[in-house]
Amino acid sequence: MSRSVKFVLIGFAALVVVLAGTFYYINRSSFGIPGFYVWKAVSGTAQASGHAAVDGIDLYYETYGERRAGVRPVLVLHGGTVFIETMHYQIRALAKDRFVVAPDSRGHGRSTDGAGPLHYERMAEDMIALLDLLDIPEADIVGWSDGGNIGLILAMKHPARVGRLVTSGSNYNVDGLSSLPPADMSPDAEEMAGARDFYKRVAPDPDHWPVFFGKVIHMWRTEPNYSEADLGRIAAPVLVVAGEFDSIERDHTETLAASIPNGRVHIVPGTTHFVLLEDPAAFNDATLGFLNE
């Protein structure tokens, strides 16, 4: 091998190392989302994406994995102001053995919000319409934060459509929040930079962010409003997950689980409201164990 060829090979190897290191840093600092895009492109597990015309809006969704006879699909529901990608650790774990449906909730990500305010119950009805469109009579649900709230409503209002439910960082009334967001919270707030920047990259109308954000803040301050008696009508087995330092009050989380006849609580040590991103292995182990019982 000539000296010039060796130099080229050494230079190429160095470039690969640098690029790999750069990708690792970006991937880790972005909670693994860039790696999710790579996985979708090369794994063959991502099946389809689509737009469903639902109750005056355009609801975006993606599907993963294969349908299997006798195995319930899983509906994966993200939290408030965010998007499908925040659930990527759960999507990848579930899609190994399940057919997974992951929508951007009404107004979020690539979905539109339509006229009027946002309501959890309306978003729950969006999910029923999506399941109908995909010919899914019954699904398990994994929901984080607002997605978990929607899951609870589905279990209360549509018991025949829910097999098992995993909620994380969810509340059944506003008293469960450790603090309410200010009514006049700015859509330009620094803590919302990540969600805001992603919204502006993918939303049908990027300039709609302030309106959408105001709707979410109003919903967080006024909903949901259910009682322990309402929870007591849930027939599905429910795993109520929370981070040790979650923004949902611990006693509220424990009451939520205790009020559901087949409910149980699981606290993940050392994590916050973002447990499913901070410790995805622990979250997924608990979720998969519960769903596969």
Question: What labels would you give this structure?
Answer:
single chain; 293 residues; alpha/beta; eight-stranded mixed beta sheet; 11 helices; 8 strands; globular
In short:
This protein is an alpha/beta fold and 293 residues long.
SSE topology:
Layout (H helix, E strand, L loop, with lengths): L2 H27 L3 H10 L3 E9 L2 E8 L9 E4 L10 H7 L5 E4 L16 H14 L5 E6 L1 H12 L4 E7 L24 H10 L6 H14 L5 H4 L6 E6 L6 H10 L3 E6 L6 H4 L1 H12 L2
Parallel strand pairs: 3-4, 3-5, 5-6, 6-7, 7-8
Antiparallel strand pairs: 1-2, 2-4
Helix pairs in contact: 3-11, 4-5
What is the average per-residue confidence, as pLDDT, rounded to a whole number?
90
User: How would you sum up the global shape?
Assistant: globular
Record field, number of beta strands: 8
Low-confidence stretches: 5-29
Helix content: 40-55%
Beta strand %: 15-25%
Termini separation: 59 Å
Widest sheet: strand order? 1-2-4-3-5-6-7-8
- Sheet/helix structural class: alpha/beta
**Tally of individual helices:** 11
Element pattern in H and E: HHEEEHEHEHEHHHEHEHH
* Quaternary: single chain
Largest sheet: 8 strands, mixed
Gyration radius, to the nearest Å? 20 Å
